[in-house]
Specification:
The chain has four helices and four strands. It is of the alpha+beta class and about 170 residues long.
Amino acid sequence: MTDHTVLPMRFGTILPDEAAVLAALSSHYDEFKAGLNCVRGHVELALRVLWDDDVPQTPSRRLVPSGGSGRDYMLGQVEEQRKLDKQREQAKALAEDIHMPLARLSAKSTRQTLVTPRLLLTAAYLVKREQVAAFRQEVEMLSLANPGVRLLCTGPWPPYNFVMVTNNE
């Protein structure tokens, strides 16, 4: 993978003989060629962005109001929901601020925001081999610029998120 393009495939496929291998390769030739053309000279880098200790909390939901009127209880619930919505919007904006500079350094990218309360962003980037060091440097700069979160960059990996992996019967 250091010097050559790797096309990710399903692990553990066993074919009975060389003829079966050739038949499988030829029947999926166009898919393999398109996949190789898409990822040639690139690797995948993964990023996870985790909240540090101060994870935004979801509001507590009391089923029965303790004292006060039902109106006061409902107004409190509405206010808690507004706070949660504001936290989510701020989290999405932060995820976007972290993702965009990295996406600019990559040929393609995928991402999911707010996967769990603690996981702000999970993303994969298709990066030219010669850009890996620059990408990692950008991750480091983003990490320093965002002290409330922890950025975990892994890879390089085969580009699983950027090709169709064929399942042979």
